[in-house]
Amino acid sequence: NSVFSHVVRGPEDPILGVTVAYNKDPSPVKLNLGVGAYRTEEGKPLVLNVVRKAEQLLVNDRSRVKEYLPITGLADFNKLSAKLMFGANSPAIQENRVTTVQCLSGTGSLRVGAEFLAKHYHQRTIYIPQPTWGNHPKVFTLAGLSVKTYRYYDPATRGLNFQGLLDDFGSAPSGAIVLLHACAHNPTGVDPTVKQWEQIRQLVRSKGLMPFFDSAYQGFASGSLDADAQPVRMFVADGGELLLAQSYAKNMGLYGERIGALSIVCKTADVASRVESQLKLVIRPMYSNPPIHGASIVAAILKDRDLYNEWTIELKAMADRIISMRHKLFEALRARGTPGDWSHIIKQIGMFTFTGLNPKQVAFMTKEYHIYMTSDGRISMAGLSSKTVPHLADAIHAAVT
Ligand code: PMP
Which residues contact 65 (CB under 8 A, 6 or more apart)? Predict the structure, then answer.
Protein backbone atom coordinates (compact mmCIF):
# COMPACT_ATOMS: atom_id res chain seq x y z
CA ASN A 1 0.00 0.00 0.00
CA SER A 2 1.41 3.38 -1.03
CA VAL A 3 2.23 5.91 1.66
CA PHE A 4 0.64 8.37 -0.77
CA SER A 5 -2.67 6.53 -1.09
CA HIS A 6 -4.48 9.29 0.82
CA VAL A 7 -3.50 11.84 -1.88
CA VAL A 8 -6.59 13.12 -3.64
CA ARG A 9 -6.57 14.13 -7.28
CA GLY A 10 -6.06 17.88 -7.69
CA PRO A 11 -8.20 19.90 -10.07
CA GLU A 12 -6.92 20.78 -13.57
CA ASP A 13 -5.61 24.32 -13.89
CA PRO A 14 -8.57 26.46 -15.02
CA ILE A 15 -6.63 27.92 -17.97
CA LEU A 16 -4.15 25.18 -18.96
CA GLY A 17 -6.90 22.58 -18.34
CA VAL A 18 -8.79 24.06 -21.31
CA THR A 19 -5.97 22.88 -23.59
CA VAL A 20 -6.06 19.42 -21.99
CA ALA A 21 -9.77 19.14 -22.85
CA TYR A 22 -9.16 20.56 -26.34
CA ASN A 23 -6.45 17.99 -27.08
CA LYS A 24 -8.86 15.16 -26.25
CA ASP A 25 -11.53 16.40 -28.70
CA PRO A 26 -11.32 14.55 -32.08
CA SER A 27 -13.52 17.11 -33.93
CA PRO A 28 -11.85 18.63 -37.03
CA VAL A 29 -13.51 22.02 -36.38
CA LYS A 30 -12.32 22.33 -32.77
CA LEU A 31 -10.92 25.70 -31.76
CA ASN A 32 -8.75 26.50 -28.72
CA LEU A 33 -9.32 30.06 -27.51
CA GLY A 34 -8.30 29.27 -23.95
CA VAL A 35 -4.61 29.83 -23.43
CA GLY A 36 -3.19 33.24 -24.39
CA ALA A 37 -0.76 32.12 -27.05
CA TYR A 38 -0.37 33.81 -30.42
CA ARG A 39 -1.32 31.89 -33.56
CA THR A 40 -0.82 32.82 -37.20
CA GLU A 41 -3.62 33.26 -39.76
CA GLU A 42 -3.02 29.54 -40.44
CA GLY A 43 -3.63 28.73 -36.78
CA LYS A 44 0.01 27.80 -36.16
CA PRO A 45 2.35 28.84 -33.31
CA LEU A 46 4.79 31.55 -34.43
CA VAL A 47 8.53 31.78 -33.89
CA LEU A 48 9.52 35.35 -34.77
CA ASN A 49 12.02 35.73 -37.59
CA VAL A 50 14.12 37.94 -35.39
CA VAL A 51 14.26 35.18 -32.77
CA ARG A 52 15.46 32.68 -35.40
CA LYS A 53 18.16 35.18 -36.42
CA ALA A 54 19.28 35.75 -32.85
CA GLU A 55 19.43 31.99 -32.26
CA GLN A 56 21.55 31.59 -35.38
CA LEU A 57 23.98 34.22 -34.08
CA LEU A 58 24.20 32.36 -30.77
CA VAL A 59 24.82 29.01 -32.46
CA ASN A 60 27.56 30.46 -34.66
CA ASP A 61 29.36 32.04 -31.72
CA ARG A 62 31.81 29.28 -30.75
CA SER A 63 32.98 31.26 -27.74
CA ARG A 64 29.64 30.64 -26.03
CA VAL A 65 29.66 28.07 -23.26
CA LYS A 66 27.03 26.52 -21.02
CA GLU A 67 28.39 27.68 -17.67
CA TYR A 68 26.01 28.68 -14.89
CA LEU A 69 24.71 32.22 -15.00
CA PRO A 70 25.02 34.28 -11.81
CA ILE A 71 22.08 33.97 -9.36
CA THR A 72 20.70 37.22 -10.79
CA GLY A 73 20.97 36.02 -14.41
CA LEU A 74 22.54 37.52 -17.51
CA ALA A 75 23.75 41.05 -16.73
CA ASP A 76 23.17 42.42 -20.26
CA PHE A 77 19.67 41.00 -20.30
CA ASN A 78 18.84 42.67 -16.98
CA LYS A 79 20.11 46.09 -18.04
CA LEU A 80 18.34 45.95 -21.39
CA SER A 81 15.07 44.77 -19.83
CA ALA A 82 15.02 47.68 -17.40
CA LYS A 83 15.75 50.06 -20.27
CA LEU A 84 12.96 48.56 -22.38
CA MET A 85 10.35 49.36 -19.75
CA PHE A 86 11.70 52.46 -18.01
CA GLY A 87 13.09 54.13 -21.14
CA ALA A 88 16.60 54.86 -22.40
CA ASN A 89 16.87 58.11 -20.42
CA SER A 90 15.28 56.95 -17.20
CA PRO A 91 16.82 58.85 -14.26
CA ALA A 92 16.16 55.84 -12.02
CA ILE A 93 18.46 53.73 -14.20
CA GLN A 94 21.07 56.46 -14.53
CA GLU A 95 21.12 56.89 -10.75
CA ASN A 96 21.51 53.10 -10.26
CA ARG A 97 18.32 53.01 -8.22
CA VAL A 98 16.97 49.97 -10.07
CA THR A 99 17.87 46.39 -9.41
CA THR A 100 16.83 43.89 -12.07
CA VAL A 101 17.10 40.12 -11.79
CA GLN A 102 16.38 37.58 -14.50
CA CYS A 103 13.57 35.23 -13.48
CA LEU A 104 11.46 32.39 -14.88
CA SER A 105 9.19 34.43 -17.13
CA GLY A 106 6.41 36.58 -15.70
CA THR A 107 5.23 33.99 -13.19
CA GLY A 108 8.68 33.50 -11.67
CA SER A 109 9.24 37.26 -11.51
CA LEU A 110 5.97 37.73 -9.64
CA ARG A 111 6.85 34.93 -7.25
CA VAL A 112 10.36 36.20 -6.47
CA GLY A 113 9.05 39.76 -6.00
CA ALA A 114 6.29 38.51 -3.70
CA GLU A 115 8.69 36.37 -1.64
CA PHE A 116 10.93 39.40 -1.21
CA LEU A 117 8.00 41.56 -0.08
CA ALA A 118 6.75 38.90 2.35
CA LYS A 119 10.18 38.86 3.95
CA HIS A 120 11.24 42.48 3.89
CA TYR A 121 8.22 44.76 3.46
CA HIS A 122 6.14 45.96 6.39
CA GLN A 123 2.75 45.29 4.75
CA ARG A 124 1.78 41.75 3.80
CA THR A 125 -1.51 42.56 2.10
CA ILE A 126 -1.66 42.68 -1.68
CA TYR A 127 -4.73 43.96 -3.50
CA ILE A 128 -5.36 42.35 -6.89
CA PRO A 129 -7.97 43.44 -9.42
CA GLN A 130 -11.35 41.71 -9.59
CA PRO A 131 -11.11 39.79 -11.88
CA THR A 132 -7.46 39.07 -12.66
CA TRP A 133 -5.23 36.38 -14.14
CA GLY A 134 -6.20 33.18 -12.29
CA ASN A 135 -2.65 32.43 -11.16
CA HIS A 136 -2.18 35.73 -9.27
CA PRO A 137 -3.93 34.76 -6.02
CA LYS A 138 -2.09 31.43 -5.87
CA VAL A 139 1.34 32.93 -6.55
CA PHE A 140 0.94 35.63 -3.92
CA THR A 141 -0.67 33.43 -1.26
CA LEU A 142 2.04 30.77 -1.53
CA ALA A 143 4.71 33.48 -1.34
CA GLY A 144 3.30 34.46 2.05
CA LEU A 145 1.21 37.51 1.19
CA SER A 146 -2.40 37.98 2.14
CA VAL A 147 -4.57 38.56 -0.93
CA LYS A 148 -7.49 40.98 -1.13
CA THR A 149 -9.26 42.30 -4.22
CA TYR A 150 -10.10 45.74 -5.52
CA ARG A 151 -12.97 46.55 -7.84
CA TYR A 152 -11.84 46.79 -11.46
CA TYR A 153 -14.36 45.55 -14.01
CA ASP A 154 -17.94 46.70 -14.36
CA PRO A 155 -20.04 43.97 -16.06
CA ALA A 156 -22.79 46.51 -16.79
CA THR A 157 -20.57 48.70 -19.00
CA ARG A 158 -18.03 45.97 -19.82
CA GLY A 159 -15.53 48.69 -18.95
CA LEU A 160 -13.54 49.97 -15.99
CA ASN A 161 -15.18 50.47 -12.59
CA PHE A 162 -12.98 53.48 -12.00
CA GLN A 163 -14.84 54.85 -9.00
CA GLY A 164 -14.84 51.42 -7.36
CA LEU A 165 -11.08 51.18 -7.90
CA LEU A 166 -10.47 54.62 -6.40
CA ASP A 167 -12.72 53.86 -3.41
CA ASP A 168 -10.99 50.55 -2.73
CA PHE A 169 -7.50 52.05 -3.00
CA GLY A 170 -8.69 54.90 -0.79
CA SER A 171 -9.81 52.54 1.96
CA ALA A 172 -6.83 50.16 1.71
CA PRO A 173 -4.48 50.29 4.69
CA SER A 174 -1.54 52.61 4.18
CA GLY A 175 1.43 50.83 2.64
CA ALA A 176 -0.64 47.99 1.16
CA ILE A 177 0.71 46.46 -2.05
CA VAL A 178 -1.41 46.96 -5.18
CA LEU A 179 -1.03 44.69 -8.20
CA LEU A 180 -1.48 46.65 -11.43
CA HIS A 181 -1.53 45.18 -14.94
CA ALA A 182 0.86 47.43 -16.85
CA CYS A 183 -1.25 47.18 -20.02
CA ALA A 184 -3.70 44.85 -21.78
CA HIS A 185 -5.43 43.71 -18.59
CA ASN A 186 -6.02 39.96 -18.47
CA PRO A 187 -8.81 38.73 -18.65
CA THR A 188 -10.91 41.85 -19.26
CA GLY A 189 -9.01 43.70 -22.00
CA VAL A 190 -9.95 46.88 -20.13
CA ASP A 191 -7.20 49.40 -19.30
CA PRO A 192 -7.40 52.79 -17.57
CA THR A 193 -6.86 55.83 -19.79
CA VAL A 194 -3.68 57.89 -19.33
CA LYS A 195 -5.74 60.44 -17.40
CA GLN A 196 -7.12 57.73 -15.13
CA TRP A 197 -3.62 56.31 -14.64
CA GLU A 198 -2.49 59.73 -13.45
CA GLN A 199 -5.31 59.79 -10.87
CA ILE A 200 -4.42 56.26 -9.78
CA ARG A 201 -0.78 57.29 -9.45
CA GLN A 202 -1.61 60.28 -7.27
CA LEU A 203 -3.80 58.18 -4.98
CA VAL A 204 -1.23 55.37 -4.75
CA ARG A 205 1.51 57.82 -3.84
CA SER A 206 -0.55 59.91 -1.43
CA LYS A 207 -1.58 56.77 0.48
CA GLY A 208 1.91 55.27 0.36
CA LEU A 209 0.65 52.14 -1.41
CA MET A 210 3.33 49.95 -3.03
CA PRO A 211 2.71 49.43 -6.77
CA PHE A 212 3.63 46.00 -8.16
CA PHE A 213 3.29 46.12 -11.95
CA ASP A 214 2.72 42.95 -13.91
CA SER A 215 3.80 43.47 -17.52
CA ALA A 216 3.03 40.39 -19.59
CA TYR A 217 1.97 42.19 -22.78
CA GLN A 218 4.25 45.18 -23.46
CA GLY A 219 3.74 46.03 -27.15
CA PHE A 220 0.63 43.87 -27.49
CA ALA A 221 -1.86 46.51 -26.38
CA SER A 222 -1.07 49.35 -28.79
CA GLY A 223 1.56 47.75 -31.00
CA SER A 224 4.11 50.19 -29.53
CA LEU A 225 6.53 49.19 -26.79
CA ASP A 226 6.93 52.78 -25.60
CA ALA A 227 3.22 53.61 -25.55
CA ASP A 228 2.48 50.46 -23.54
CA ALA A 229 5.24 51.38 -21.05
CA GLN A 230 3.72 54.78 -20.32
CA PRO A 231 1.78 53.90 -17.14
CA VAL A 232 4.86 52.35 -15.52
CA ARG A 233 7.03 55.27 -16.62
CA MET A 234 4.61 57.71 -14.95
CA PHE A 235 5.15 55.90 -11.65
CA VAL A 236 8.93 55.91 -12.07
CA ALA A 237 9.01 59.59 -13.01
CA ASP A 238 7.62 60.67 -9.63
CA GLY A 239 10.67 59.24 -7.88
CA GLY A 240 8.70 56.70 -5.86
CA GLU A 241 9.42 53.01 -5.38
CA LEU A 242 7.80 50.10 -7.19
CA LEU A 243 8.15 46.51 -8.36
CA LEU A 244 7.84 45.30 -11.93
CA ALA A 245 7.48 41.76 -13.30
CA GLN A 246 8.25 41.52 -17.03
CA SER A 247 7.58 38.59 -19.36
CA TYR A 248 8.90 37.98 -22.88
CA ALA A 249 6.51 35.05 -23.41
CA LYS A 250 4.04 36.96 -25.56
CA ASN A 251 5.87 39.92 -27.03
CA MET A 252 8.85 37.87 -28.26
CA GLY A 253 6.92 34.62 -28.52
CA LEU A 254 9.35 32.98 -26.09
CA TYR A 255 6.67 31.16 -24.06
CA GLY A 256 8.55 27.94 -23.35
CA GLU A 257 11.92 29.63 -22.81
CA ARG A 258 10.56 30.96 -19.48
CA ILE A 259 12.30 34.30 -19.72
CA GLY A 260 11.38 37.39 -17.74
CA ALA A 261 12.69 39.86 -15.20
CA LEU A 262 11.89 41.37 -11.83
CA SER A 263 12.89 44.98 -11.28
CA ILE A 264 12.67 46.88 -8.03
CA VAL A 265 12.97 50.66 -8.28
CA CYS A 266 14.32 52.09 -5.03
CA LYS A 267 14.95 55.57 -3.63
CA THR A 268 18.74 55.28 -3.63
CA ALA A 269 21.49 53.21 -5.23
CA ASP A 270 22.57 52.00 -1.82
CA VAL A 271 19.12 50.60 -1.01
CA ALA A 272 18.87 49.03 -4.48
CA SER A 273 22.13 47.18 -3.99
CA ARG A 274 21.07 45.84 -0.59
CA VAL A 275 17.69 44.81 -2.03
CA GLU A 276 19.51 42.91 -4.77
CA SER A 277 21.61 41.05 -2.22
CA GLN A 278 18.36 39.86 -0.59
CA LEU A 279 16.80 38.88 -3.93
CA LYS A 280 19.77 36.54 -4.37
CA LEU A 281 18.91 34.91 -1.05
CA VAL A 282 15.34 34.37 -2.28
CA ILE A 283 16.46 32.86 -5.60
CA ARG A 284 19.38 30.64 -4.57
CA PRO A 285 17.39 28.08 -2.54
CA MET A 286 14.55 28.09 -5.10
CA TYR A 287 16.39 27.27 -8.35
CA SER A 288 20.00 28.51 -7.86
CA ASN A 289 20.21 30.47 -11.10
CA PRO A 290 18.10 30.97 -14.21
CA PRO A 291 18.47 29.35 -17.68
CA ILE A 292 20.76 30.92 -20.24
CA HIS A 293 19.17 30.44 -23.65
CA GLY A 294 16.13 32.72 -23.54
CA ALA A 295 18.08 35.51 -21.85
CA SER A 296 20.73 35.31 -24.57
CA ILE A 297 18.10 35.58 -27.30
CA VAL A 298 16.45 38.61 -25.69
CA ALA A 299 19.77 40.34 -25.04
CA ALA A 300 20.94 39.75 -28.63
CA ILE A 301 17.77 41.37 -29.96
CA LEU A 302 17.63 44.27 -27.53
CA LYS A 303 21.24 45.31 -27.98
CA ASP A 304 21.34 45.32 -31.78
CA ARG A 305 19.58 48.25 -33.43
CA ASP A 306 18.62 46.31 -36.57
CA LEU A 307 17.31 43.28 -34.71
CA TYR A 308 15.44 45.54 -32.31
CA ASN A 309 13.76 47.37 -35.18
CA GLU A 310 12.88 44.10 -36.82
CA TRP A 311 11.34 42.93 -33.56
CA THR A 312 9.15 46.02 -33.25
CA ILE A 313 7.82 45.41 -36.77
CA GLU A 314 6.98 41.76 -36.07
CA LEU A 315 5.43 42.69 -32.74
CA LYS A 316 3.25 45.34 -34.38
CA ALA A 317 2.15 42.78 -36.97
CA MET A 318 0.99 40.44 -34.19
CA ALA A 319 -0.86 43.27 -32.42
CA ASP A 320 -2.46 44.37 -35.70
CA ARG A 321 -3.60 40.87 -36.56
CA ILE A 322 -5.32 40.61 -33.18
CA ILE A 323 -7.03 43.97 -33.72
CA SER A 324 -8.21 42.87 -37.16
CA MET A 325 -9.71 39.72 -35.57
CA ARG A 326 -11.67 41.98 -33.21
CA HIS A 327 -13.17 43.81 -36.18
CA LYS A 328 -13.90 40.60 -38.09
CA LEU A 329 -15.68 39.01 -35.12
CA PHE A 330 -17.65 42.17 -34.40
CA GLU A 331 -18.74 42.43 -38.05
CA ALA A 332 -19.64 38.74 -38.18
CA LEU A 333 -21.97 39.11 -35.17
CA ARG A 334 -23.50 42.23 -36.65
CA ALA A 335 -24.10 40.40 -39.95
CA ARG A 336 -25.89 37.62 -38.05
CA GLY A 337 -28.01 40.13 -36.15
CA THR A 338 -26.82 38.57 -32.90
CA PRO A 339 -28.78 40.21 -30.07
CA GLY A 340 -26.87 42.46 -27.66
CA ASP A 341 -24.21 45.15 -27.82
CA TRP A 342 -20.92 43.61 -28.92
CA SER A 343 -18.93 46.83 -29.26
CA HIS A 344 -16.71 45.79 -26.32
CA ILE A 345 -15.09 43.31 -28.73
CA ILE A 346 -13.51 46.22 -30.60
CA LYS A 347 -13.05 48.46 -27.54
CA GLN A 348 -11.13 46.00 -25.38
CA ILE A 349 -7.35 45.90 -25.58
CA GLY A 350 -4.69 43.23 -25.93
CA MET A 351 -4.90 39.50 -26.38
CA PHE A 352 -8.31 38.82 -24.87
CA THR A 353 -11.96 39.66 -25.24
CA PHE A 354 -14.03 39.33 -22.11
CA THR A 355 -17.16 38.39 -23.99
CA GLY A 356 -19.71 38.53 -21.19
CA LEU A 357 -20.79 34.96 -22.05
CA ASN A 358 -21.72 33.03 -18.90
CA PRO A 359 -20.41 29.58 -17.90
CA LYS A 360 -23.58 27.91 -19.25
CA GLN A 361 -23.17 29.56 -22.64
CA VAL A 362 -19.47 28.67 -22.68
CA ALA A 363 -20.29 25.02 -21.91
CA PHE A 364 -22.88 25.04 -24.71
CA MET A 365 -20.32 26.40 -27.21
CA THR A 366 -17.81 23.75 -26.20
CA LYS A 367 -20.33 20.91 -26.42
CA GLU A 368 -22.05 21.94 -29.65
CA TYR A 369 -19.30 23.82 -31.49
CA HIS A 370 -16.06 22.38 -30.04
CA ILE A 371 -14.89 25.85 -29.07
CA TYR A 372 -12.71 25.89 -25.96
CA MET A 373 -12.29 28.88 -23.66
CA THR A 374 -12.16 29.64 -19.94
CA SER A 375 -15.53 29.43 -18.20
CA ASP A 376 -15.50 33.18 -17.44
CA GLY A 377 -16.13 33.81 -21.16
CA ARG A 378 -12.63 35.03 -21.96
CA ILE A 379 -11.51 34.30 -25.51
CA SER A 380 -7.97 34.62 -26.80
CA MET A 381 -8.27 36.77 -29.93
CA ALA A 382 -4.74 35.67 -30.85
CA GLY A 383 -6.04 32.14 -31.39
CA LEU A 384 -8.58 33.27 -34.03
CA SER A 385 -8.12 33.53 -37.79
CA SER A 386 -10.24 34.78 -40.71
CA LYS A 387 -11.16 31.14 -41.37
CA THR A 388 -12.38 30.44 -37.83
CA VAL A 389 -14.23 33.71 -37.09
CA PRO A 390 -17.49 32.55 -38.81
CA HIS A 391 -17.54 29.35 -36.73
CA LEU A 392 -17.07 31.35 -33.53
CA ALA A 393 -19.72 33.87 -34.55
CA ASP A 394 -22.19 31.04 -35.30
CA ALA A 395 -21.48 29.57 -31.86
CA ILE A 396 -21.91 32.87 -30.01
CA HIS A 397 -25.09 33.58 -31.96
CA ALA A 398 -26.53 30.18 -31.06
CA ALA A 399 -25.45 30.55 -27.42
CA VAL A 400 -27.25 33.86 -26.87
CA THR A 401 -30.42 33.24 -28.89
N1 PMP B 1 0.67 37.96 -15.81
C2 PMP B 1 -0.36 37.95 -16.63
C3 PMP B 1 -1.42 38.99 -16.46
C4 PMP B 1 -0.46 37.00 -17.64
O5 PMP B 1 -1.50 37.03 -18.46
C6 PMP B 1 0.57 36.05 -17.77
C7 PMP B 1 0.52 35.02 -18.86
N8 PMP B 1 -0.69 34.42 -19.09
C9 PMP B 1 1.64 36.10 -16.87
C10 PMP B 1 1.65 37.07 -15.92
C11 PMP B 1 2.81 35.19 -16.85
O12 PMP B 1 3.11 34.44 -17.93
P13 PMP B 1 4.53 33.78 -18.09
O14 PMP B 1 4.92 33.21 -16.78
O15 PMP B 1 4.31 32.74 -19.15
O16 PMP B 1 5.45 34.86 -18.53
Answer: none
